[in-house]
Design brief:
Layout lengths: L1 H85 L6 E4 L2 E4 L7 H10 L2 E3 L5 H8 L5 E8 L2 E4 L22 E6 L10 E5 L13 E3 L1 E2 L5
Parallel strand pairs: 3-8
Antiparallel strand pairs: 1-2, 4-5, 4-6, 4-9, 6-7
């Protein structure tokens, strides 16, 4: 009985030792796993940081490319404008800014004037700025401009917004006329208050497209 007891005790001790060894091995493997997980987490963080840096650099590159494209477009526009400023006008045409202006030597209706302008590749002049208005008034002739009232609504021949305006005191005066035209009148001393509306008979008011030249016509009636 004593021998059997000793054998069982030895077997128990052996199993206990094996269990402890397995437990130690498990702890070691768990520690290795945790260390590897920490390394993986570190590498993942480094990867994400590098990806963020790459994204930032890509955004900066795109912004610089957009800025370059904008500057290139501005440069090309300035070159085009410079070319327009340097381009000479035809004989008997007046230069202002990038446009050329012609004033007829005969008195015509606005409708006939519009047809003459288009025959020369232009339109009755559309006033786009205060400076242009002063320039046109400075030509010292009563001229039609490319504006008319069509059933109560003022329009430019190119359909751009009808503003600003430079009416004389008391103008427009033909309030009951459904359709009228506008002349820049030399009876006004102030170029910024020199528009006068005139009654309408016949007027070509649809633009045939942007012309190379602007055109002002001397006239005494709107038809």
């Amino acid at each position: 009985a004593t021998v059997e007891r000793d054998q069982l005790q030895n077997s128990l001790n052996t199993r206990t030792t094996e269990r402890d060894q397995l437990q130690n091995s498990l702890h070691f493997r768990t520690t290795e796993r945790d260390q590897l997980q920490n390394i993986l987490n570190t590498r993942t963080t480094e990867r994400d940081q590098l990806q963020n840096i790459l994204n930032t650099r890509t955004t900066e590159r795109d912004q610089l490319q957009n800025s370059l494209n904008t500057r290139t477009t501005e440069r090309d526009q300035l070159k085009t404008r410079l070319g327009s400023y340097e381009k000479p006008c035809l004989n008997e045409w007046w230069k202002f800014g990038t446009s050329c202006y012609y004033v007829s030597s005969t008195r015509d209706s606005a409708g006939d004037g519009q047809q003459q302008c288009r025959a020369m590749g232009g339109e009755l002049v559309v006033i786009n700025s205060r400076e242009e208005q002063i320039f046109i008034h400075g030509l010292k002739k009563n001229v039609w401009i490319g504006a008319h009232k069509d059933y109560g609504i003022w329009k430019w021949v190119d359909d751009t917004a009808f503003k600003p305006t430079y009416w004389m005191e008391g103008e427009p005066s033909n309030l009951n006329d459904e359709v009228t035209c506008i002349e820049i009148s030399q009876t006004a001393s102030d170029p910024l208050k020199s528009w006068k509306d005139q009654g309408y008979v016949e007027f070509v008011h649809h633009s045939s497209g942007p012309g190379e030249w602007n055109c002002g016509l001397v006239g005494s009636n709107c038809g």
